[in-house]
Amino acid sequence: MLKVTLGLALVTLVACSQCPNNEVCEAGQTCCQDPTGEFSCCPFHHGECCEDHLHCCPEDMLCSVMDSMCINATHTLLFVERTPAKRTDLPKSFRMIPSLPASEDDITCPDGSFCPAEFSCLLMASSYGCCPVAQGLVCSDGKHCCAKDHECSADSNSCVKLKEPAEAVLCGNGTSECPVDTTCCGTEDGQWACCPIPKAVCCDDKIHCCPEDSVCDVEGSKCMSSTNQELPMWAKFPARLRAEWEDHKFVESRAKAELTTTRQITTAGKQMTTLPGALPKTSDVPCNDTAACPDESTCCKTKEGGWDCCPLPEAVCCDDFIHCCPHGTTCNVAAGSCDEPSGSQPWFEKLPVKLIRSQNVAVTKDVPCDDTVACPDGSTCCKTQEGGWACCPLPEAVCCDDFIHCCPHGKTCNTAAGKCEDSSGSQPWFEKLPVKLIRSQNVAVTQVHSDVPCNDTAACPDGSTCCKTKEGGWDCCPLPEAVCCDDFIHCCPHGTTCNVAAGSCDEPSGSQPWFEKLPVKLIRSQNVAVTKDVPCDDTVACPDGSTCCKTQEGGWACCPLPEAVCCDDFIHCCPHGKTCNTAAGKCEDSSGSQPWFEKLPVKLIRSQNVAVTQDVPCNDTAACPDGSTCCKTKEGGWDCCPLPEAVCCDDFIHCCPHGTTCNVAAGSCDEPSGSQPWFEKLPVKLIRSQNVAVTKDVPCDDTVACPDGSTCCKTQEGGWACCPLPEAVCCDDFIHCCPHGKTCNTAAGKCEDSSGSQPWFEKLPVKLIRSQNVAVTQDVPCNDTAACPDGSTCCKTKEGGWDCCPLPEAVCCDDFIHCCPHGTTCNVAAGSCDEPSGSQPWFEKLPVKLIRSQNVAVTKDVPCDDTVACPDGSTCCKTKEGGWACCPLPEAVCCDDFIHCCPHGKKCNTAAGKCEDSSGSQPWFEKLPVKLIRSQNVAVTQDVTCDSTKSCPDGSTCCKNKEGGWGCCPLPEAVCCDDFIHCCPHGTTCNVAAGSCDEPSGSQPWFEKLPVKLIRSQNVAVTQDVPCNDTAACPDGSTCCKTQEGGWACCPLPEAVCCDDFIHCCPHGKKCNTAAGKCEDSSGSQPWFEKLPVKLIRSQNVAVTQDVTCDSTKSCPDGSTCCKNKEGGWGCCPLPEAVCCDDFIHCCPHDTTCNVAAGSCDEPSGSQPWFEKLPALPRAGQRSPGNVNCDSNHICPDSSTCCKNTDGDWGCCPLPEAVCCKDHIHCCPHGTTCDFVTLTCTSNTTSVPMTDINQPSTKEEQKQHREVKDKVGKYNSRVPCDLQTSCPDYTTCCLIAKTNKWGCCPLPNAVCCTDGEHCCPANYKCDVTRVSCIRGDVVIPWYNKMSAQSTPAPSLDLGAVECDEQMSCSADSTCCHLSTGEWGCCPLPEAVCCPDQEHCCPKGYRCDLRRRSCIKTSWLHVEKVPLAHIDDQKPQSSVTENDIQCGGGHNCKDSETCCPTSKTTWGCCPSPKAVCCDDMKHCCPAGYKCGAGGTCTSAVGFDWNNWDNWRVFFSKNNRAITL
Prior knowledge:
41% strand
């Protein structure tokens, strides 16, 4: 074919300077460009164009815009205004030629005609023509054309080159700009500055900037690159403020020879748009058949889908549907600018369209989307999310995947960024507009043949692709031969891959946003045959080209891909040849990964002609579809794995393809080449015709069976469950199982062998055997009433009954719940069965079943005593209660905790809970209950007699308990430990501190004693008892020891040494170390023993003459010595022929010497602690009922104990038979030990706080006290000092030396100091030299006494606190001396007056003036409260409270504060000068402020006035008082 070459002759104006836009300046002038792209002329050759775009300067001079001058080193001139440039003659347009017949190199036009390859096809007035440029645009006359970078003149005879934009970067405010290749950055004052590098990062300090792809380190004053390289920071310079005229959005009016904006840009062979026909007004630009824009403007879509006019020719319509930009620029919606490589300028706002009055434009200009709707000419039909149509206001546009936006032809939608991108850069995307209805629907329905049928009822438009929806229906991807994405919502172009994670379509050259699918349309004439469907079973099918996949419910779903891979989550699928990666949600193969597909619903097959014979029967009632696999469910039923010959996973929910392994932990199917997600099983379907024989079942016992190919496994209840695997390994948790040849790892929940691990399987329920023809003879009898199934092992339970281990010849574990296979060892700590080759999870035992025919002989039982026995092969072990339990092991070792036992030859490690020997350790076993022997033919002669009434079982040892009775150590010839609770094996030593039995080879946990049993035939003589006196005796083999009360206790050792604390004793030949609580001799030390109570001698045939008579009224017990006390009365030294020490409190053994200074009894061989005397006993008939005599002068109340206090006097512990602590301050309950570290009383079973020792009463004091009480009468809340004087309750009467009158120490049971002025708390000593109170290492300030008050006559009001004869303070306050020597009133009852004579503290607290607080130490807790001020108002002889008027008729006491509870009501805060909280509900003391949540927070100067009201405040952790 003849190739036509056309040229355009350009006229060169030699005498002129041509500007880039074809405008010219006179010779010797310089072209200067302004921001609009226009040029003006500077009247200098090579002139300098000033930055104001209005002036210029001569060559080699610089513009000084601020001074309006041109300057250089030697001269200064005024700058000169530019002049407008002139238009040159325009180049001629190309004359188009008609299209030609075909040639092999030609390009095809849409009407079937052809153009040369280097030409472009353009639509002329009535047919297509050829424009002699590769990318041309047709002019308005339909005969001429211009090149892509030109525009046609109004007469279509000339081509004008498009303007070049100004080179500047417009900043965000639209009024500041920076030079090209710089970056606009904000400043601290809200202005703009220029970073001297392009695409820079603006730093947070608003001062510096960093290069692209780096991070600002403002603190380090450096830039960190993406490769962690340090770069210097850049400083910014101010941006230029644009002139006002530069910001106007205008349209320059030109002559009538102006250019139109109707352009068609094409590439060779591809039509871009269609030209309108005859225009109603040649100057207007028609937008559609009803609206047009003025000439030289551009039609742009509005958000509503209508039209606006951009006042620029061939403009770019911006994505906000409000603005536009000049041709060749890009809309920057974020910055509000029009960008191009050389810089930025502000964008333009669109103008309204005008109506076309004469609507003679044919409807044929519209772009039909389908037979009912169309888009305006020059736009593109795009699918909406609803499956309808929307119009993209661009010709041949790219419809974006969000179904809302679109991009220009040749660009790619970036959905994430909301931009249209190509190699030149990015621009904002466009929003689609609504379609319009086609009024004359003259499009025949016969055109549906162009539709793409999806199935027999739905189709997609031509050029689109049918894609499945999540519901199993169809959507339309608006692309031909598209790739349907796995989210069932989006699709991608042909040849790309869906990236679901990124929401993009990927290919080697890059990525683009994905497309959203559109709804299908119904096919009215359903002439598509059903034969194309893919039947899933006899009732449902999937569309042609899809794949049937199982759902989680066991039904079917359709994967919208042919021969697809059904993923293990039962929701997604992958293309043929790929593997599902469930964790990542992708389809993978060697070439890479892509998002997976979601399955769609199936459709019913109306003609159910699919045979049922394809089903895979699971049992006689349920089956799975053909090509699937029956798998067991957790409930023991069946599910269907949608894979043939699949591997059923151990979670009973998922399965894996044939040849892979289930990885339950990862949720994948593993094979050597890699992993893929696992599949979820589907429900089975019922077989209506149950013709499957029952003979395939695997019988578990005579009542239940498991399906064929499964394995019977025991449940925790002792019944059966079915492992859905043949010859499976039943796991020890009784819930799971493993494939044949693997080992259960219960800890990891896996099945393991040498090849690796896989998740385990969960067992399923069994089914009943209707015809119970299985013989019972297979059972393994446990005893005469219970048996285990064949192939299992009988194991004891904690209750002493039986469970069944589902393993033959199994090892029964020590926790009585689990068991292990034969030849392994139970590891209770790890929950595993160990052997040299490794470990596996243990098995859980199952319940036994009753033997209806009890023909098992009882002779196999092991009798424990004459009433109970243990099963054959077990061992009788003692319980804590002294009864029996059964260790489920033959010849077992019974552990010391009386709960567990160990195998023969091992030792119990009670601390670790293990059984140990030289080979290692294993978990211990728990004992089981015994059973009663109906025929009690076991002789009682095996018992070990403890005394006349108690005995212990044969093979045990009688040991004393704390109460003086007996306990049974479950060991023969055992060592009874000193705590009276435990014992140790023969030949070992009790280590009470460690709770162990020690021997040279090591230690083992100790044993707990068991209760004794009564001897019904009491034929043991009483002569074994050791009589202590005529009323009490100790058991044979024990020693009588004195108690602190002077009574008797029994040391459970023969000829024992009774310790000085009156609680413990030591073995014969050892010495008591009271401080260490041990018994010592040259060989070492051991814990001491606690004494036990004596027992009453019922037949009191022991003479009273055993008592040692002190005088006619007092005696001491036999074996003790009468010693005088300070008062001249008697005390009893608990030693025979003892030495009475000079302190009148202690005594020493015979032939030793009292060392009062050291508190010891000395002899040539050494020293030992001395003994404290005990109160003497009244002789017969002289005991004072209800009181405990400490000595002849001091007594304690009944049920209390006499204890020495820190002064060496007697005190009363308010506990019976208590332990007197060595600090002489506290005491503890009987049977406990004083722990001075935690200030608690501890025993093996409990820990309680220590109790204070109280002051005892002398007999004379009691008498006087009763007399004063009788006389004072109703004033019995006070403490009487004598018949005339008393102190407030909870204080102590002390003489004041200066006045020789009674004073009151503000402490109960206080110590009165010898200086006659101070006192100390009970159990403290006064240190006059340090003016303090001392108790051990504790030193506190001492207390000032206050004057006592004469006991008033009954008529006197005791509401006041008397300070002296003339002064008193109000009730519930305390008199304190002020620094002036006068009396002041502390607003606290029985308060502590501080030494600064300004403050006081509550009772029980001490003043800490350094911290300005009151401190109270309660055991290990220190409580602090603020100091209270002593009121310096004059104390009053009589207190009267004057009411405070609050207002509105409300009043409060003068010791209170009025606080509003509403706008009209008042409440009284129980403190003077209090702070009323804003919530009108609470108040806080003076010196406090109201805090959040109803709390009072401390402030300086807390003022107390009424302690009673504030006790609640401190007891509730400073909570605000409620009004």
